[in-house]
Amino acid sequence: LMTDPDQTIKAGLNDNRRRFLDWTLIAVFVVMVSAPMLTTPWARQLEAGGEERELAPWPPRPRDTQAILAYPRRVEAWVQDHFGLRDALVRAHSRLCYHVLGTSASSKVLLGRDAWLFYHGDRLDGRPIEDYRGSQPLSARQLEWIRWMLQDQYEWLRDHRTDYLFVLIPSKEDVYDEYLPSCVTRVGPLNTRQQVVEYMQARTQVPVLDVSAAMEAARTNRLCFRKTDTHWTDYGAFVAYREIMSRLARKFPGAEPFPESAFNYRRGTEDGGDLAAMLNMCEDLREEVEHMAPVDPARGRPHEAAKELADLFAGTGDAASPTAVVYRDSYSEILIPFLSEHFRQVRYVWARLGANMDGVAAAPPDIVLQIMSDRALRLNLRYSPEIQQYCVRRRFADSTLRLSGSEQLAPLGDTAASHENEALLLSSLSGAPEAELPAIGDTDKVLPIVRIDVTLDEDDEVALSVGGETVTRQRPGKGRRELILALYDPGQSGAVRFRFGSRPGRVRLHALEIRGWPR
Predict the structure, then answer these.
(1) Residue-wise pLDDT tens digits, 195-213
(2) Three-state SS for 340?
(3) Global pTM?
(4) In degrees, to the nearest 5, what angle opens at C-alpha 422 toward C-alphas 417 and 423?
(5) 484: CB partners within 8 A, 6+ apart
(6) Strand positions, DSSP E, 138-222
(7) DSSP 46
(8) Which of 447, 463, 458 is nearest to 497 (CA)?
(9) Angle, vertex CA 517, rays to CA 488 and CA 398, nearest 5
């Protein structure tokens, strides 16, 4: 066969080009894949604040079988958090999602309109978007727990000659819902904050201040929330401060808030806030921010905290001003310079999920403020067990309502029972005759309070269950003990039982009784 030499040469050149291109692509691919691994020892760690979490540490040397089995998983977690070029790759991914695909690189951040960002939340930090939509309203059990938590604190402080004010802070989507994406719409008639406020107003005298209406009115003047942050601007905090002090001035003359004219505004461009940090795009999403500074020198500057989230102390020293304790969350940080100008002495205590009131009884202040973001209402709120017991015991002692079945239960005498046995308090919460006053089945109207007088031979756990579901566990200690517990859930029904301990031993039941308190 005869071939054209020119064609043969061209075919050879094309083959060489293809081989060169193939090897070049292979080399680029190998470099890209291996570069993170090769640069890991010298890589700069991604700042923990960028992802709002701590990076996985290098695991210690395993010393037992369980640690050996977990070691590969812990090493893998470290590698995922510390591999080379991670910072650059994460930022590149965020920018690609935001600028090109128009989506969020973080499940916690929702992209709104006009470059507004909103916090989607998670199970451990609340879900403000779901709260806004009203798609998952608080249950009766959650509402009752919040109600009795606030009422117990209010009554306990009242007995210690201290006023109490619970302040609820709205989330950004409630105030600026027009910037939410069109897919976020309201489903229920009330959001979480509105549920709690209406529930409290209908059942208690606990003073609850919802500053959302003031925010709605003030938003036409200046921005109350930052576009790239979950928190207020200085002006938004000023609006809340003005509402708080106006309420306190009813009881403490002279506590009126300063007018807006007492402050100067300073405007500047800053890096994006915490939502931009979750996207690793603080420098990309810079925004214009206004800060407020007092015209006259501040008198009540707080002392520097010894460590993060430690108590802060401030005050003017003015003998005519009241004293206060403020239980705060992250929204309250920006409030501190405003509030401190109105108290002789004020202590700021970090208490995002509830207040313990430590030290309040020893030196009662004139006022206790508890400031809470509405997204915390869905979380596992808690408060002082001593305050809870103080109020529950008093209600039990003051109650004249012995619920159906109690008369057959007390006194029981020194009855011995093995640790495997259960003490049946009442066969059924819902089985009481209609003629009883009132029937214990009406748990939406009556708060059942259980009293048990028992001697324990072992320092072990005592568990109370209703309808097979454990309501509470306590470790009262060895010896004779009186336990008084309230059944807060209005939907609880079924057998009410105590289980005594998990180790062999003996218990002696002296008395069992259930009384009711109007909800």
Answers:
(1) 999 999 999 999 999 999 9
(2) helix
(3) 0.80
(4) 80
(5) 389, 392, 393, 396, 449, 450, 451, 452
(6) 163-169, 208-210
(7) P
(8) 463
(9) 130
